[in-house]
Amino acid sequence: MSSSSSAIPGDEKFRQSDTAISGGLAAPDMSTEAIAFSSGNPIIEETRGVMHLFSNDSVSTLPVERKPLVCVLGVPNHMTYADFCQFCASFIHHILEMRIVRNDGMVDRYSVLIRFDTQDSTDKFYRHYNNRQFSSLEDEVCQVLFTVDVQFTGYTGSLDHVQCSPASSTEQPSCPVCLERLDRNASGILTTICNHSFHCSCISKWTDSSCPVCRYCQQQPEKSTCFICQTSENLWICVICGFVGCGRYKGGHAIIHWKETQHCYSLELETQRVWDYVGDNYVHRLIQSKTDGKLVELNAHCVHANDSCGSCNCVDSGNSEVILSCEAEIVNEYNELLRTQLENQKLYFETLLQQDNEETERAIADAVNKAFMQKRQKMQAKLERCVKEKRFLEDLNENLLKNQEIWKAKLLEVEEREKKALRTKDDKVQALEEQLRDLMAQLEAGKTVGEDVNMK
Length: 456
Prior knowledge:
The chain is an alpha+beta fold.
């Protein structure tokens, strides 16, 4: 069912006139872009529309024809309503309305349309949060764009689920949390993605990602995929450890997991049947009927109906009694089987742990031996250098001792020569002194004789 925007009173609060739209789109200095969006629970009702945004090409200047209405694009789905309210807490008292919408073609993201009380607070919000990280631990940044206009193009679902706008209805609705009136002039109003409105102060205390009214969760559960090849077809989950792998007709990662871990039971996600890799067949339970003694299959599906056997008249009532009576035995058998498997897995992982410990000890021993050998080689090389240096010093000492003996002998020889030369010199001096005394005596005698002659 589709209707025009006039038939959707809950979305009129973001609707502008056609003249304002045309004027905004004709702005000469800024280009605009149209982004389709939707809100509401798709199972019950869904509102669709288009929002016209100023592009962020010219960051240095603000749009001339901007309004106190912005859109925060690409908010990660893991951010709850409370997380976003806490993120923009410094401007929460300036916010009149917030509306959570989903953008077409944007996975795991949602957008927030925010209307402020004044244009000045809008500009400050833009300058403060544009290109700012949502968290210091993440790379995603907050992308804020000024909004030209929001047009609601259609509505799908029953009109009974339409929530009246606080601005358009005569009697203002109340907040489902505090039961106070939703007056945007008194406090900000946040409309969730499922079109339920709350006070911002009330929803900021709700830490869950689901709606407090209908429990619709904006963060949808992830689709199961193979842990190895990421395929989503023919998936099997190990009933022991929860490993999800593809079947043998895809990548065969489930059977590879069994070969590596010996987890022999795997559940097919599509049919919910358990396969036994050891027996190479599905695990069926056959019990004996107490009425006729025949073997019947437990939880067998009727061939005449789409549901279980109890949906038609072809069921043996005795089989149902047998199934009910054997339920405790089946549970005990399953528990025993699970215990056995867990015990085997315990032994298996203990073996792996022991092997890892042995490998670690061997690696440590090898590392210690290698370090010891390297240290021994270094010490051996140092010892060889010391021995070589010792030999060199011994040879040098021996040569020095020989040279010392030689020089001692030479010194003694020189001393002997000096003594001999000194004795010879002394003898010559003594001989010369005797000759000088004789000569002086002769001179004295000659002088005496001469004087005697003269006297005569």
